[in-house]
Design a protein that fits this description.
Number of helices: 3
Strand order of the largest sheet: 3-4-2-5
Strand content: 25-35%
CATH class: Alpha Beta
Radius of gyration: 25 Å
Order of helices and strands: HEEHEEHEE
Number of strands: 6
Shape: elongated
Length: about 120
């Protein structure tokens, strides 16, 4: 008798038993942000624009406002932009929200690899 067949049958039986167990729990890793102030870049923000309108109005606004493009994303219609030195981050973000084709203007959040993480068990 082939030794692979009993092993295969036993494996299928064990997997079926585990799959039917109702007390399974799924572990997910999440960052702990309780008590930690949300950090963001003091000079850089993210802008997402409508791909149909294109980025020409945004590029013109960057030039006129004397901001700097830090990164132009190639996969998504968005850019990371640095504010001018003589403007606050909030007023710069407000200005870019009014540019034609801009969908969202958001803080450039900072996530550190050293931030504490803890597993959270969820019943599913």
């Amino acid at each position: 008798m082939n030794i692979k067949l009993p092993f295969l049958l036993l494996s299928c039986f064990v997997l079926t038993c585990f799959a039917s167990c109702r007390s399974r729990q799924i572990a997910e890793i999440v960052s702990i942000h309780e008590g930690i102030a949300a950090e963001h870049s003091p000079t850089t923000f993210l802008v997402m624009y409508d791909s149909i309108v294109g980025k020409s109005p945004l590029l013109q606004a960057v030039k006129e406002y004397k901001a700097t493009i830090v990164y132009d994303y190639s996969i998504i219609p968005g850019m990371a932009i640095r504010k001018p030195d003589d403007k606050t981050l909030e007023e710069t973000m407000q200005h870019f929200r009014k540019v034609k084709g801009v969908l969202t203007v958001e803080y450039d959040h900072i996530y550190r690899l050293t931030d504490p993480v803890r597993p959270v068990l969820l019943d599913r």
